[in-house]
């Protein structure tokens, strides 16, 4: 397992410092809960693409998030996901963000997973299907420790041309996903046979991302173990 972190300038990606996301980040900071971008948004940034669907992960439980959003007058929509750890706040009646509590699988049957919440980012990353989907990005908007100063600082960040004042992200890559993405390599977290046995749909996701990530001239490249399992 790799446990590395790197810093990435987010100034080319405006969706990562929209006022709504900065406000949301400030609220989590105010209540002492860590919040990171997860999955596809991180993958897009590493491919130099603007993320359009930003999913977030946190150590806060759904109940803690609901209490926090109620205190801050943030409306919550799509309540069906809460049983699985996902809360969707609508910030300033403008932007929706899906935020999921870190989880660990305690029982799987190939179709459904019974989960428990955890505070361990590595454990959550380890339950994800592919290394390129197990990446997290902690967002930094300056040194502010509360909502008001965070929102004030973003105005200075946007107006400033100083590199050190730009919003930046801290990449957490526990399973070599960045290297796999650079090499256009699709690899499971852990043993492919075990991961597919836990959730049969993972083999479909493997081929989906293989088609998205692999260049056409390498479309037939697969590990023998994947072909045997599939």
UniProtKB/TrEMBL annotation:
An example molecular function term from Gene Ontology annotations: nucleotidyltransferase activity
Native organism: Protopolystoma xenopodis
Stated name of the protein: Poly A polymerase head domain-containing protein
InterPro entries in the cross-refs: Bact_CCA-adding_enz_type3_sf, NT_sf, PolA_pol_head_dom
Residue ranges annotated for the Poly A polymerase head domain, each copy included: 36-187
GO biological process, one term: tRNA 3'-terminal CCA addition
Classification via CDD domains: NT_ClassII-CCAase (cd05398)
PANTHER family with a match to the protein in the record: CCA TRNA NUCLEOTIDYLTRANSFERASE 1, MITOCHONDRIAL (PTHR46173)
Cellular component GO terms, alphabetical: mitochondrion
